[in-house]
Each structure stands twice: as structure tokens, then as C-alpha cells.
Design goal:
By secondary structure, this protein is an alpha/beta fold. About 25% of the residues lie in helices and about 25% in strands. The protein has helices spanning about 30-40, 70-80, 100-105, 130-135, 145, 160, 215-225, 250-255, 290-295, 305-310, 330-345, 365-370, 385-395; strands at about 5-10, 25, 30, 45-50, 60-65, 85-90, 110-115, 120-125, 150-155, 170-180, 180-190, 190-200, 200-210, 230, 240-245, 310-315, 325-330, 355-360, 375-380, 400-405, 405-410. Helix 1 (about 30-40) crosses helix 3. The protein is elongated and about 70 Å long. Mean pLDDT is about 85; it is low at about 255-275.
Length: about 425
Amino acid sequence: MQLTGVLLVGGASRRFGSPKALARVGGETLAERAWRLLGECCAHRVAVGKSADRLPLPFDLVDDGTEVRAPLAGLVAGLRAAPTELSVVVPVDCPGLTAEPLVTLAAHCRDAAVPQTGPLPGAYRRTALPVLERRLAAGELKIRDALGELDVAVLELPESVLANVNTPPYATARVEVVRAGAVEQDLVAVEEPLEIRVGGEPVAVTMRTPGHDEELALGFAVGEALDPDSARLPADLAANTVELEVRSFDPGRLRRHFYTSSSCGVCGKGALDAVAVQAPPVESQLQVPAALLASLPDRLRQPAFELTGGLHAAGLFDLDGTPLCVREDVGRHNALDKVVGWAFGAERLPLARQLLCVSGRLSFELVQKASTAGCPVLVGVGAPSSLAVQVAKAQGVTLCGFARGGRVNVYAHPQRVR
């Protein structure tokens, strides 16, 4: 069976925060990973995207020839360029995908074969092109709707191989595990170092889960009172680095006082005065129902934790409990930094009328970060430490722990809890 592998590279990925194709997983970009995967099961490979995006890719790109930003445009261009009758089509943001499900899709393809989750990844024959081309020309851009006009096989495939980076599987890696004497594949949380640079010089290293690195750097800068301006991936796309632009910078203070690890976030800070909070106490007359605070952990959507069981989560919520931003990371302090960094980019700081929630225990550094972000309420699933309670009382943060089963304990500033 001669197959062409079609890779849909995507574009700027504004919702994701940076081009997904260039996000790194396990030492390679998502684009490199997907291209390698297609080489394992396909005789030919075609990558489709927008040449105008000028993404630095290690393979040639076929321009889809349209102004449309939709997977349908890439699918049409890929099937046109494919030298074989049958193609498997893969979006760049499915890092859990393996060759076996692609071969299975191809083996069952009629006009098309798709998994239970929808049209991509999928197998498509050239016979599908007339319908796809007509709908593209008409501006009817949903591939799912086009499938209604085609002879399609729908196959049940494992959810773990289909998840995309919007649910972030870039946070996971495949490893071998022995269960009951049998060797199987399992997903674990990715942990890699991130070097934060200012003016091209490294100022900090944190062990984190890749993804939303710019947010992480911005949240770190807010917590360290660096008065950030922006963060970006370096022009040379060096792996696991991010460039931070700040308005105020004392490199000596950071080198003396800062080192992070995924477990505690402040290993190496040897004295309490070295971790003094860099913000005035939070002053807020906010009042929130206890039942709402107790419900926040259940509203923390944690797709990567569900896959691996190895990640923390932090979330920012409106006063009605609506989640505004949820981030996962192997480090609880990194997850919160990513949320604060998102809020900085969305021009929501200070968080005077929002709520923060974290999935684990409440360390003093999490309270410090909530304080520097100006958030009056921090909720956790687990227990606070003694220092967390002290910092919360000093900084005017309502600290709530053991939020579960409809109940919550309030350790500092209970006047905000109804």
C-alpha cells in the first residue's frame, strides 16, 4: 500500500501563544516529530502551510495557495500535491500520534477514514477532492461537514494518540512500563529545563513542562518584581530558552537569590529575607461564597494530568467561577507563573476581582505569587504550610485549603468568605 503522508504545519497559533510547529517536545519540535512519524509509515511526505509565515522548518513547505486560515485549505493542497491515490493527513499538534493508527486508518479508508474524534488525523483518497475543493471555494470550511458528503469509515482509536496541544499533550512523553510482567507503552509528564534570559544573558533556570514558555517567563518576572515588558522565543530558536524584556533589572540580586526546581520553586534561597514579597499587601473588600471556592478545584480542567497523573494545575477564575485561564506544569509554581503571565499579556493585572486556584498544597511561594499579582483569594486542594499562612496574613491574601467535597478551610483573612 503506497501512502503519502501530508503534514498540516499550521501558522502563527495565536491562541497557543507561539507557532505550534516550533514547540519542543522531548528535544525536537512538533514539526520534526510529525515529519519523522510520517517517514515511518509513508513512502512520500508533503508538508503544507503558509510560506508567508516563514517558519524555520527542516523540510520544504508546499504553500496552500489561499488566504484561508483553515485545515481544509491544507487538506486540499496536500491531496493535490500527493503522488499517490491514498494519503494520511496529520496536523502538527498531535505529538501522541504513532504510526500504527495511521496505517489502520489507511487500511479502512473509503473516500476517507477518520477517528471517533473527528476529521484529523485521517486517511483520504483523491476521490474526496471534488467535494473538498467545492466546499473550500464556497467558503464552507468545516471538514466535519464535508465528511457528510463522502463515504467515510469511522474508527475507534485510543484517545491518548489523538489529543492535540490545545489539551496539552506536548506535556507528555511515551515511555516503556512493565505491568504484570508485560512491557507496555505509557504516558508520563515531560520535565525539561527552561533558561530565562535577559539581554541574552541567562538569569534563571527552572525545570518545567514545555509549553507557554513566554507566559512562564512573564509570570516569573512579575513575581520577582522585574517590571516585565514582553517575552519571546529567541531568534535562533535555541531549545529550552526564552528571552525576557524587563524595565527594571538587578542581575546581582537574582543571581544571589534565585534558583528554581520543579519540586519547590525556591531551592537555594537560604534565608527568609531573601524571599520577601515584592508587593504591598492586597487590599480588597471582595466577598465570595464558600461553596464557590470549594468548587474551584473541580473546575480546573487538567487534560495532561488525566493522561499522566504527574502534573500540577493552576487556574484563574471570574467571581462566578468561570475559568479564564488554566495551565498545567510539572512544577506548581510554574503553573501559577504561566497563569500570571497569561494575565499580564491579557492586561488583567492586578487580579483584584479574580480568584486563583491550584491543584496541590499551598506553599509560601504560591502565596507570594498571588500577592504580587494583586489577587485577594488563593484556593488549594491541599494543605498550606506554616510559612504560607504567615505570608498570606501579612500580604492580605485570603488563603483557602482543603477545598474538596463542598467544603473549604480558611487560614487567612476569612472576612472575604461568605
